[in-house]
Amino acid sequence: MSAPESENQQDRLFYRYGRRKTDRLPGVLVKSDGRFYLKASYLEQLNRQARNLSMLMDSASSIMAEMGLDNLLVLIMDSVTRVMQADRSTLFLIDEQTREIWSRVAQGSDEIRIPLGKGIAGHVAHTGDTINIPDAYNDDRFNSDFDRKSGYKTRSILCMPVRNPQGDIIGAIQVLNKVDGTIFTAEDESLLAAFASLAGISLANARAYEELEKERDLLEVRVQERTRDLEEARQKSDELLLNILPEDVADELKINGHATPRSFAQVSVLFTDFKGFTSVAEKVSPEDLVKELDKCFYYFDEIMERYGLEKIKTIGDSYMCVGGLPRPNKSHAIETVLAALEIQNFMHRMREIKESVGEPFWELRLGIHSGPVTAGVVGKKKFAYDIWGDTVNTASRMESSGSVGRINVSSATHELIQQYFECEYRGAVEAKNKGRVDMYYVNRIQPDYCDDPEGMVPGKTLQEIISDLRRSGQ
Question: 169-178 and 28-30 as β-strands: parallel, antiparallel, unpaired?
């Protein structure tokens, strides 16, 4: 059959299956026997394309699954080198701040930086052109310095831009030297273009993931800082609350939002008051007055902590505290008197210092009474822990009915401390709104229970007795 007849038969076949002449497959021949034959060269080309497509799909699965930017770049270059059957590959990224392209991954070399627009890769990243150079040394754009330094021989180059999903150029991929010694073909360009598109999408995803990771890390740091700030604020708040309330009461208030009033069968209440406060106040400035008062009360607070007493409040120049609450104990009377002795001794020393420099000084009365009280938190704003009951009133009368520089106690307190302290009976003394009340001055600790000649420092025996009484009362 002649060639025209063969073509007519092929036309009839296309007509029979509803195809156009332009749909004829390249490499397909129709012989005189009416059969279709595929050229060997075309079959090889199809097989090669199938292999490339398979490798591209395998690489795409791995590349799209990788979110770490550094690992992704290495993976892209390894895949490009293998699929393109090239000797080396380099991925350049654009640094917008420096207007350079740089290789985070460059097979066979350390990091490379090139001004944007310079060299082959710089030109591609700047213009978006695809450059396919069959002979590098015959192209003026090729810079052979790298070859001279490294000893590498560049023969052929294929370089094309990498774009993000928005179409912006973000870098360039460059492959060197086909391993079989041939040049890069149009088919290679199509294959590298597919890789460049895949790389652009993957890089955009990885950068977005990297930004999310940075934001997450930054958020975690901020959360940690905020948590630390809140913890510091909470600690300061707790410390401030503990300056106002006993620890047990503060905990109850934080948990329940309120503190239940409690009755205590026996506590010891101490009042102090400065004699001549008004006259001294008239001779000094307000700042010096408050400074001096703060110095005294600050020292009183330290004494309260040493003896486990609870400061209730200050009213002007008066100081009020109590032993035996919020945790009941049987040592309250002894510890309250020891605290009073230490306060008394402090005021004696202050008087000596003030007299030696010719400055006015304060003298102090101290009164103690033991008995039942009710304790609780009062107020909505600026709330305070306070105690109520006749015991409080009687303790106040002990202070006002006492003498300057002396510790005046009621008979109820005396009953609890007389074994450990030397006391001086005053008799029944008239007290405001109380009538005649038996009162005692506490002079010192009994010699068997002190560590100093003056009887102001409790000895080991007395300290052990206090510890036992404290434990037994809880």
Answer: unpaired
Spatial separation of the C-alpha atoms in residues 226 and 229, rounded to whole Å: 5
CB 334 within 8 A of CB 417: yes
- Domain housing 281: 258-472
Collapsing DSSP to helix, strand or coil, 245 comes out as coil
* Shared-domain flag, residues 57 and 34: no
Q: What is the pLDDT of residue 76?
A: 73
274-300 per-position pLDDT tens digit: 887 777 777 778 888 888 888 889 999
CATH number of the structural domain spanning residue 203: 3.30.450.40
Mean pLDDT, the chain, rounded, equals 82
Q: How far is CA 154 from CA 115, 177, 205, 301, 384, in A?
A: 21, 7, 33, 86, 87
108 in any annotated domain: yes
- Domain annotation covers residue 243: no
DSSP 298: H
DSSP assignments along 387-405, one per residue: EESHHHHHHHHHHHTS-TT
Q: Are residues 278 and 385 in the same domain?
A: yes
- Structurally, how many domains does the chain consist of? 3
Question: Domain of 432: which CATH number?
Answer: 3.30.70.1230
The answer to whether 122 touches 115, Cβ cutoff 8 Å, is yes
pTM of the model: 0.56
Asked, for residue 251, whether it belongs to a domain, the answer is no
Question: What is the per-residue pLDDT across 182-214, written as a single tens digit (0 to 9) for each?
Answer: 999 888 888 888 888 877 777 777 777 777 778
For residue 28, the cross-strand partners are: 38
Give the model's pLDDT for residue 17: 44
